[in-house]
Recover the amino acids of this structure.
C-alpha cells in the first residue's frame, strides 16, 4: 500500500502516465498529475480521489520542474515518489532527421528526467527516503527510425543507474522500466500491418496495456521494494526472449 505517500507522475494526462497515476491512487497515494496539457492533467486528477491534483508542467523546462517540485513540497510537506513518464517521439531515419526532431526528443525524454530527478533528489536526500521510477523504452537497445528516441532512452538508463548509486546512501531507490509495445496514443498512429508484425514478435501474443506498466511501477514505488535499486526492468510480454 502507498497510503500517505505523495507521488508526482509526469505525463499523467493520458496513456501510460494516466495508468500509473490511477494505480498509485488505488494503492492509496496522493498523486500529483503533472502534464504539459493542463486540461488532461486536471481531468485525470479529478477522477482519482485521495486528494489528487493536476498541475501544468513542461519537463523540458528546468525552471518549470524546480517550481513544480517546490510547489508540491510546500503544499504537502513531503515527496515520496517521482515517476518520470512524460515522453515524446519524433521518428525519422538518421539521414533525414532534423535538428528539431533530435532536440525535441532529447529535451523531453532525457533532459526532462534529469531536471525532475535533480529537483526531487534534493528533497529525498534530506528525507532519507524516496522512490524514483523512470520510464525508458525497449527502443534504448536500438530501433530503426528512432536515433533520437533510442539515444534519449539509453541516456535514461545511464542516468537511472548513476542516480541509484549516488542516492543509495540516502535510502532513495532509482529504477528504470522499459515498456515494449503498449497500446496508447503514441502507438495508435502505427499502420495496422506494422502493428501486427510487432505483435507477432511478442511471446505473450498481445500489446501491453498501461496497467501492465503501472503494476510494476507500483511495486517499485512501494516500501517492499526498498532493496531493489539500479535495475532496468523490461515490461514487454517477453520481447527480449
Ligand atoms: P502518450 O500517450 O503520448 O502520453 C504522453 C503524455 O506525456 C501526454 O499526456 C503528453 O501531453 C505528455 N507530455 C508530452 N510532452 C510533455 C512535456 N514536455 N512535459 C510534460 N508532459 C508531456 O505516450 P505513452 O505511450 O503513454 O508514453 C509514456 C511514456 O512511456 C513515454 O516516456 C514513452 O516514451 C514511454 N514508452 C511508451 C511505449 C509505448 O509503446 N506506448 C513504449 C515504450 C516506452 P500531450 O497530450 O500534450 O502530448
Amino acid at each position: 500500500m502507498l497510503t500517505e505517500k505523495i507521488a508526482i507522475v509526469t505525463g499523467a494526462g493520458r496513456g501510460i502516465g494516466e495508468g500509473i497515476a490511477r494505480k498509485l491512487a488505488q494503492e492509496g497515494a496522493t498523486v500529483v498529475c503533472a502534464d504539459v496539457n493542463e486540461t488532461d492533467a486536471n481531468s485525470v486528477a479529478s477522477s482519482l480521489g485521495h486528494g489528487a491534483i493536476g498541475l501544468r508542467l513542461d519537463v523540458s523546462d528546468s525552471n518549470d520542474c524546480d517550481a513544480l517540485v517546490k510547489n508540491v513540497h510546500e503544499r504537502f510537506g513531503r515527496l515520496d515518489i517521482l515517476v518520470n513518464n512524460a515522453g515524446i517521439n519524433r521518428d525519422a531515419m538518421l539521414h533525414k532527421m532534423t535538428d528539431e526532431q533530435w532536440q525535441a526528443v532529447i529535451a523531453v525524454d532525457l533532459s526532462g528526467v534529469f531536471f525532475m530527478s535533480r529537483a526531487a533528489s534534493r528533497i529525498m536526500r534530506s528525507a532519507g527516503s524516496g522512490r524514483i521510477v523512470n520510464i525508458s523504452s525497449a527502443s534504448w537497445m536500438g530501433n530503426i527510425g528512432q536515433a533520437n528516441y533510442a539515444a534519449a532512452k539509453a541516456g535514461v538508463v545511464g542516468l537511472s543507474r548513476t542516480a541509484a548509486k549516488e542516492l543509495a546512501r540516502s535510502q532513495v531507490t532509482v529504477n528504470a522500466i522499459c515498456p515494449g509495445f503498449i497500446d496508447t496514443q503514441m502507438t495508435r498512429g502505427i499502420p495496422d500491418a506494422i502493428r501486427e508484425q510487432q505483435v507477432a514478435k511478442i511471446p505473450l501474443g498481445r500489446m501491453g496495456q498501461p496497467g501492465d506498466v503501472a503494476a510494476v511501477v507500483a511495486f517499485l514505488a512501494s516500501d517492499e521494494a526498498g532493496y531493489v535499486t539500479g535495475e532496468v526492468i523490461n515490461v514487454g510480454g517477453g520481447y527480449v526472449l
